[in-house]
# Entry
Amino acid sequence: MMKMNMQSCLITGEGTTLKEFGTDPISRRIAVLYFPSPSSFSHFVIRQSVHRVPYDYITQSASRRRSDMPPSHVCLSRATGLALILAVLTGCSVTMSAKDIPSLQTTSPLTSPRSQSFILHPFTDQQNLASPVILQVAFNKLTLEESPAAMITSAVHRELERTGHRPIQDGQQSKGDFLIDGTVTQHSLRRDIGNSLTTITGNVEITITVRPAAGGKKAFTKRYRGYHFANGPDLPPKVWKDILGQAIADSVKNLSMDRDLAAFIHSL
# Structure
């Protein structure tokens, strides 16, 4: 195989022609470098501002000698060779768990001088995700470590503890004061693009039923919704995770701040 000398050079200068590189700007993170000889080059460069302004897609094709290159060119040389330098496209994969759901800090009407015990059954999920990947854009994706129903059950468990009560895991040998059943009726992470901005929106909806563990006809059933969004020119998967976590926390907050639920619990 014929050997060629290669030289790669990352251009940081200005004065180039804008051109979109690919169909999905979010997944592009690194330059594609290809130089067929030491004295000429044809390449693409992707530049991202630290202030998260939109990507510039720059293409430049010219012939220069290395001696003519200005100091703003940062060169990375390799002397041996391959006949082709492959394009490198890197993405970002983020995993989310119940630990990523923020805890509430506000005072809750559920708090009372007398601690109650709650047998918290695992929530069910009406949507039943076929894949743990809740959102993927090209090489970028957000993967759930556990189901949304399991994460929301954990968040409610943590909120009951925070308000001074004693949640009991389903199956433990204890009667408890109350039984809690829950259903996750919606959990979604949506991506919309408009006016050069990307908007990520998280929606969560849960329905819970609380009844006395001793039995009887009394029961309290209500639906709680959580919503959170963010927008910008380029939102990475880490932001997606924060948005979904905030949406779940918002639904739990609405449950915790419900005075009707608090009155039902305190009356028994």
Q: What stands out?
A: The first strand starts at residue 6 and ends at 11. The CA atoms of residues 209 and 221 lie 4 Å apart.
